[in-house]
Amino acid sequence: MQPTSSTKTREDPLAFYKSLPTADVTGICGNISDADKQLNAKIFFFFIGPIGTFGSSTGRHLRLTSIDVYHGASGALEARVILEADVTEEMCNVYGIVHGACGAYMVDVGAAMPLIALGVAKGVDGSGVSQAMNIVYHNAPRIGTTLRVIATSITAEDKLKSGRVEVWDKHKERLYFSGVHNKISVPPPRGSPIKSHL
Fold first, then answer.
1. How many C-beta atoms surround the C-beta of residue 55 within 10 A?
2. What GO terms are given for molecular function (predicted)?
3. 0.85 exceeded by the pTM?
C-alpha cells in the first residue's frame, strides 16, 4: 500500500538549520527554551553569512540579547527580539556616523529575527526575502555608541511577513532609526539545502 499524503511523515522544515554548528546562547535572555534560543541563534548566524558575504562584517557585530514569544493584545502569537552592537569605524561614513546603508542592514536583519523566532515557535521556516522596507533616520549614531535594536513581529502569515524595528542608543533615550520590513517566502535557489515551503 502506498502512503497517502495524510500518512506520510512530515519533513521537518527546520532540519537544515538544526544541523548547523552549535552557537553560544549564554548571553540570550527571554521566555523561550534554551533549545529554541539555540535554533534561533543558528539561523541568525547562518543568515549573517561567512566573512566576505555582503554585510557579514556588520552582522558579526550584532549580539542577540533577548528573544520573547508571547500572545499579543490581539491574541495572535508575536515575538520580540533585542540585539545590540557597538558602532565601529567600518560601519560609518566619512563623517564618523553610521552609514545609511548600514542602518538599513540592521533594519533588515533586525526585522527578520522576530519572524524567525515565530517560525521556530510554530515549527516552520520563518525566513524570507525582502519585499519592501521603509526606514526613517531620526538621528546619527557615532563611533563608540552602543546600539540597541528592538524588533517586533507585525504579522507572519504563510507567505507574507512583516517586522518593525527601532534602533536606540542603549544608554540614552535617543532613537536613531526605525523601520518596517516586509518579507515574502520564495522557493530557495536550485541546489540549496533549504527546502521550499510554498
1. 18
2. fatty acyl-CoA hydrolase activity
3. yes
